Amino acid sequence: MRMKKSALYVVVYLLFAVNVFAQFNKNIVIAHRGAWKVAGLPENSIASLNHAVALGCHGAEFDVHLTKDGVIVVNHDDNFYGMDIEKATYAELLTKQHPNGEKIPTLEAYLREGMKQTKTKLILEIKTSTVNLDRSLELTRLTVALVKKLKAEKWVEYICFSYDVGKKIHELNPKAKVAYLTGDVAPDVAKKDGYTGLDYHFSVYKEHPTWIKEAKALGLTVNAWTVNDKPEMQTLINQNVEYITTNEPELLFEVLGGK
Ligand code: MG
């Protein structure tokens, strides 16, 4: 009797888990640096994250760096309004602000905001350090640890240009979804090294016309960046890519016919 009851609990738990995971939007649209362009918002701001959620994107992409004093912050460039992020303390960065009044978001604040909803995934790019590989790997360790501490694993998928960073993420959390950005590695090699997806510039798939099919056959997801015009979007949609990363999510939704 006790066995049966525990088995029932497992079934109920699995149904609950499947349902929770099924809630994320099922479209292919990933807003690059959040959804900022049409709305006139700062890239990588909390406002651009929330706008990507409001548009119904599958994912909001963003970039993280490590300050001199070990705080993970969200910004695209390695400087924030003229201040070199890796050589500045977090307190120093707080003296600058986005035009909408936001300060530079910490990764913790960004994740906490994103976790208020379960429709849009948080596509976390670990930026390569301008100092050295050790700093990139330290940022990777701290990021994966923070995602774990906040229980944000369900929302977060990782992307990176540094091949070593992606391998480190896989080592730290073998269940993490990690896609490689640089475009210089064949699908089978990325798969062997623990990557779960390719996220290459769309021109790479033209140079290597077999890679999308090969990646899919290996169970890797295929994403392309940064695709901002209709013909390129349509070309990729015709090849059944899983995701398209774009500065123009509204346009991509239009191409998809409102799906
Ligand atoms: Mg990025």
Order of helices and strands: HEHEEEEHHEHEHEHEHHEHEH
Category by helix and strand content = alpha/beta
Main beta-sheet strand count, sense and barrel state: 8 strands, parallel, barrel
Shape: globular
CATH architecture: Alpha-Beta Barrel
List keywords for this structure.
259 residues, alpha/beta, TIM Barrel, eight-stranded parallel β-barrel, two-stranded antiparallel ribbon, 40% helix, 18% strand, binds magnesium ion
Q: How does this structure look, described?
A:
The protein has helices at residues 2-21, 46-55, 90-93, 107-114, 133-149, 163-172, 187-192, 202-207, 211-217, 230-238, 249-255; strands spanning 29-31, 59-66, 72-74, 79-80, 83-84, 121-126, 156-160, 178-180, 197-201, 221-225, 243-246. It is α/β, with parallel strands linked by helices. It is 40% helix and 18% strand. The strands form 2 sheets. Strands 1-2-6-7-8-9-10-11 form an 8-stranded parallel β-barrel, surrounded by 7 helices. Strands 4-5 form a two-stranded antiparallel ribbon. The radius of gyration is 19 Å and the shape is globular. The relative contact order is 0.12. The site of magnesium ion (MG) has 3 residues, from β2.
Give me a quick take on this structure:
The chain has helices spanning 2-21, 46-55, 90-93, 107-114, 133-149, 163-172, 187-192, 202-207, 211-217, 230-238, 249-255, and strands at residues 29-31, 59-66, 72-74, 79-80, 83-84, 121-126, 156-160, 178-180, 197-201, 221-225, 243-246.
What topology does this entry show?
Blueprint: H1 2-21, E1 29-31, H2 46-55, E2 59-66, E3 72-74, E4 79-80, E5 83-84, H3 90-93, H4 107-114, E6 121-126, H5 133-149, E7 156-160, H6 163-172, E8 178-180, H7 187-192, E9 197-201, H8 202-207, H9 211-217, E10 221-225, H10 230-238, E11 243-246, H11 249-255
The protein binds magnesium ion.
